[in-house]
């Protein structure tokens, strides 16, 4: 029963993000010509800083390895990542909701871009352009935010454990300190 609940939670998180990713990519492909940009009139003031751009990437997230013929390597890597997450997901402790969320986001990002690679001859649709940062998509953002949640969560958990260890450590006062060789005249 625990495994079924875990996989249901994973399917809901990943499914919602994959649906959003594929929907936004399809809107871009249908409405913005390739290599063109768009912003609604009321957001035109943002155009120097942010815009929607129809772009394809055959590399990794944020344009890394673009044009180097490694698209199918990343497709294989997405399958491996999804399989590893699916294997370990039911083992997440109940109180660690943030691990569940982070892993669901990472799986969604990997699978969202995999769908593109399988349907667009190895390419991924990117469309979010912010400043001079490489163009990205919802799947890329999901991977990055999921990784940030995971790192932050583990860091906070480690800090809490260290604090508990400090608070539960025995307190030594001056009377209970062990004697040294110099204190007992053996020196």
Structure description:
By secondary structure, the chain is mostly helical. The protein has one domain (2-39, 49-167). The chain has helices at residues 2-31, 71-88, 97-119, 138-168, and strands at residues 37-38, 50-57, 124-130. The chain has a 3-stranded antiparallel beta sheet. The radius of gyration is 25 Å and the shape is globular. The mean pLDDT is 89.
Keywords:
single chain; 187 residues; mainly alpha; three-stranded antiparallel sheet; 3 strands
Output the radius of gyration.
25 Å
Average pLDDT across residues?
Answer: 89
- Count of individual helical segments: 4
Could you say which overall geometry the principal axes of the C-alpha atoms support? globular
List the helices and strands in order: HEEHHEH
> How many domains comprise the coordinates?
1
Strands, total number: 3
Please give the share of residues in helix: 40-55%
Strand content: 5-15%
| Strand ordering within the main sheet | 1-2-3
Helix-strand makeup class: mainly alpha
Give the N-to-C terminal Cα separation: 66 Å
Reported for the largest beta sheet, the result is: 3 strands, antiparallel
Regions with little confidence, pLDDT below 50 for 5+ residues: none
